[in-house]
């Protein structure tokens, strides 16, 4: 599906604030993500995961087998939801479904449309909280995880949350044959050569909130 709003948002970000597409943390694959999360991610209570080339082979409907245990580990420690441009798109906000046991956030627009930001916070705030698994109440409590800089990471930075870039996709050393993904890497390198870094995530003064 052609993502005109996403392209428009990306162009605007690259012109006004190029570091919006830079991740705070880079991991080769989701398997490399340490649990519990370490600095700078210690305030994170919830993860927003991409689907294609992050937890599944692109466009597949089964979780990549080596990632099953890792996803279970993440769900035990954090609130986890899927936000994908190929899953849950065009569904009602009251139609929470699951993908192999992981909740799927319904949405009307594709990433990184700004309308997704309040939807993400609203979803997490609706969940039950516990001392061992508190719900996020602030963007600094959330990390977006995905393989695309111009959608997953841009959305994270637009929200004031953390962005975790899954550099190689589902398998370390792997390459997703996608012209846009290749262009994103080149743009990232160009921005970093200019000394830019990912935007700072503002923390709550009172972490009990």
Structure description:
- By secondary structure, the chain is an alpha/beta fold.
- It is 28% helix and 13% strand.
- The protein has helices spanning 4-16, 68-77, 116-125, 149-159, 179-193, and strands at 25-27, 46-49, 79-82, 97-99, 102-104, 142-146, 162-166.
- The strands form two sheets. The protein has a five-stranded parallel β-sheet with strand order 1-7-6-2-3, sandwiched between helices. A two-stranded antiparallel sheet has the order 4-5.
- Helix 4 (149-159) links the parallel strand 6 and strand 7.
- The protein is globular, with a radius of gyration of 16 Å.
- The N and C termini lie far apart (39 Å).
Key features of this structure:
209 residues, alpha/beta, two-stranded antiparallel sheet, 5 helices
Beta-strand percentage range: 5-15%
SSE string: HEEHEEEHEHEH
Shape: globular
Stretches where pLDDT is under 50 for at least 5 consecutive residues are none
User: Helical residue percent?
Assistant: 25-40%
Strand order of the largest sheet: 1-7-6-2-3
Q: What is the terminal-to-terminal distance?
A: 39 Å
Number of helices: 5
Q: Please outline the major beta sheet.
A: 5 strands, parallel
- SSE class: alpha/beta
Count all strands and give the number.
7
Query: Mean of residue pLDDT?
Result: 88
